[in-house]
Amino acid sequence: MDVATISVANNFIDSLPVETDSTVYSVVVNVNLFDTVDVQNIEVKIGTTAGGSDLVNQTFAFDVSGSLSGGMSYLRELYRVQLGVGNLIGLGDYYAEVRVQRLDGSYSPSVVFNR
User: Among 30, 63, 94, 115, which residue's CB has the most CB atoms within a 10 Å radius?
Assistant: First the structure.
């Protein structure tokens, strides 16, 4: 799993690129699955603290592609799933967590990423 952040607004001062507390980022979570059998949902949390979800707390139904409400998006190509979680402001330090819910309701171990 990796998190891609691309600054899309409030990222230039005097024509120079900068990152500030008001910079707006487009955020995409990329998930690589080992297997796609028995997958029901993919759960994404992004927060300002470890284990937090104060920025994003979204469950994506597996194999429901396209644009979703609130600026969310889902795209799958074979074992790679790209989850657009919208635009976030001032994303200097954050923690991301992803886990898969299986058809029987159980969850995979969480994969954690921080920056």
Answer: 94
